[in-house]
Amino acid sequence: MNTTHRYDADPPPVDERDWLAQERALAQGGDPRDALLARALRTPPAASPPPGFAADMARLVTPAVVPRDEGRLERLLLNTLFVVMAAGALVVTLLYGSHWLAALDGLLGQRAMQWALAGAACVALSWALNGARRLWATPPMAAA
Amino acid sequence: MPTPADRSDDAQLRADRALADAVLAGAPGAFEQLVRDYQGLCWHVIDRMVRHPEDTRELCQETFLRVHRSLHQYRGESALKSWIAQVAYSIAKRHLERKRIPIAEAADDEGASLVERVADGTDLEAEASGGEAVAQLHAVIDRLPPMQRTLLTLYHLEDMPIGEISRVTGLAEGTIKSHLFRSRKRLRELLEPSLGVAAA
Questions:
Q1: Does ipTM exceed 0.90?
Q2: In this complex, how many residue pairs, one in chain A and one in chain B, have their CB atoms less than 8 Å apart?
Q3: Do the Cβ atoms of A54 and B39 come within 8 Å?
């Protein structure tokens, strides 16, 4: 991030003595030209943030703040829905799983079926772990 | 033994860390305070880069949104001012690159084209004294390439040391000095005819 780089348009290096002489001239302002230049360089340009910019920015990030109670209720409802759906999926799989397996077995063949089952098991495991992590996760920080 | 400047820097770093922590903890008003503290810096950097009021506003908003989102990455090793200036600079630079606007001129053309541009309609001689001359010089600075404009702003207006500017822009310190030296030399040369006689 802090690495320095060169542009094609890099100017030739300046002699340190010339640099220091220019710095001194601008700082001391003995010559009216230097004084005027130093003054111009230190005068802010007319453009400035509009009034209320900071308050507007603060309002812009405020929707990210979730009231703690509302967040908890939302999380509880989501978790309940997640558990109900998982239970439903389990029941349906237990009831009709053997039919699906027989149908897929006929369609894909024994070996392909084994690979498909192994893949499905990996996906299901990953999904279940993520779900469990979400289930026990702490509520999100207010503004970070 | 730490100097008063070191102590002052330490105090600033501690204050920056405290403000960042307050924002991260969601303390009421903390983010608004951060924006208020650094909106001038952000505006100066981006405005000098893009020279378009609407774009400046949008890019400043983007900068502070990015700051809000990434503040957990701020480690407190450098001033928050530098960190925010770095975000503002990179956002403005990317904006110019997307619009295919060169941010620095080829070194060989820099001086000549500056004089040509400045000679076009700018009469410093007529406005050689007082605030109008300053305004004219600002108009001349506005015609410098974005990189040079921004370096002048960071160095003279924001009082950033060369090393800090190097961290903000990713340019080598020698390159920064060279840009500053050449830009100021050209600007001063433009004042020669107007103030040369008066100064003598």
A1: no
A2: 155
A3: yes
User: pLDDT tens, A54-78?
Assistant: 999 999 987 655 555 666 788 888 8
Out of A14, A40, A53, closest to residue B39 by CB: A53
Among candidate residues B98, B127, B146, the one where a domain is terminated:
B98
Do B113 and B193 belong together in one domain?
A: yes
Tell whether the model's pLDDT for residue B108 goes beyond 70.
no
Over residues B138-165, the pLDDT tens digits come to: 888 888 899 999 999 999 999 999 999 9
Supply the pLDDT for residue A30: 85
Query: What residues have CB less than 8 Å from B111, skipping those under 6 apart?
Result: B182, B186
Contact A14 B48 (CB under 8 A): no
User: Which of A43, A48, A141 has the CB atom closest to B43's CB atom?
Assistant: A48
Q: Which one of B98, B116, B141 terminates a domain?
A: B98
Task: State what percent of residues in chain A have pLDDT above 70.
Answer: 79
Instruction: Name which residue leads in pLDDT, A120 or B194.
Output: A120
Residue A2 has pLDDT above 60, yes or no: no
Q: Which of A6, A15, A36, A65 to mutate to test the interface with B (most CBs of B within 10 A)?
A: A36
Residue A132 has pLDDT above 60, yes or no: yes
Q: Is the distance from CB of A47 to CB of B56 less than 8 angstroms?
A: yes
Nearest to A11 among B31, B107, B188 (CB): B107
Quote the minimal CA–CA distance from A128 to chain B in Å: 30
Q: Based on the domain organization, do B112 and B93 belong to the same domain?
A: no
The domain tally of chain B equals: 2
**Model's pTM, two decimal places?**
0.66
